[in-house]
Specification:
Helix content: 25-40%
Number of helices: 4
Largest sheet: 4 strands, mixed
Radius of gyration: 13 Å
Distance between the termini: 16 Å
Length: 110
């Protein structure tokens, strides 16, 4: 992230990823810091899509952090599907990184 962004670039990591933002010294979104299932239900996916169509963060990264404590196991698989589809349509898939059981799917806006 540090090699492919500048300090002013927004890097969004969902459902949770604040540690990566802290470690890389890159800002996340000012409003939607995380995206657990209850937030998607509370805000509605259309609100998320509208927000990100206006703010256009440089990178959006999805990880497979298990959210089953909130009754939906994985983002882009069991919740936030419309939002994830929006990102995959408007952003370019850069790569998938596997680290043990963890997977990061990285998108960049051009």
């Amino acid at each position: 992230i540090k090699q492919n962004t500048n300090p002013k670039d927004k890097v969004i990591i969902y459902p949770e990823g604040a540690f990566i933002n802290f470690y890389t010294q890159r800002s996340s979104d000012d409003y939607f810091l995380s995206l657990i299932p209850i937030y998607v239900e509370m805000y509605d996916e259309n609100v998320l899509i509208k927000h990100f169509s206006e703010t256009r963060p440089k990178y959006v990264i999805f990880n497979n952090w298990k959210t089953s404590d909130y009754y939906y196991p994985y983002i882009c698989d069991s919740y936030a599907i419309s939002f994830c589809n929006y990102i995959s349509e408007k952003y370019t898939l850069v790569k998938k990184i596997s680290a043990g059981d963890f997977v990061y799917t990285i998108y960049r806006i051009d």
